[in-house]
Amino acid sequence: ELGGGCELRVGVCAEVGGAGLEVGAAVASLDGTRCLRARAEGAANEPEELGRRVAADLLARGAGRILASAE
Virtual CA dihedral for 38, 8, 34, 68, nearest 10 degrees? Predict the structure, then answer.
């Protein structure tokens, strides 16, 4: 959903607890002046859906502009 490459500042972390899963992600500008973070929690058997929710949240808050400026 976000795209990316080796020059872009994109990070993702996931943690399983019981039957739940928490996914967090961050997108930062190359110079570090802008950084957006998002997280979502849900069922551990739906990791793709949680990833899409986090990506959509980041894009809605301007991650696309940050990523485009790094290209």
Answer: -100
Per-state percent for the chain, helix, strand, coil, to nearest 5 = 30, 40, 30
Cα-based angle 48, 53, 54 (whole degrees, multiple of 5): 100
Handedness of CA 43, 46, 50, 53 (dihedral sign): negative
By the 8 A CB rule, do 62 and 45 touch? no
Tens digit of each residue's pLDDT (9 = 90 or more) over 30-51: 888 999 999 999 999 999 999 9
Query: What does the alpha-carbon distance between residue 42 and residue 47 come to, in Å, rounded to a whole number?
Result: 8
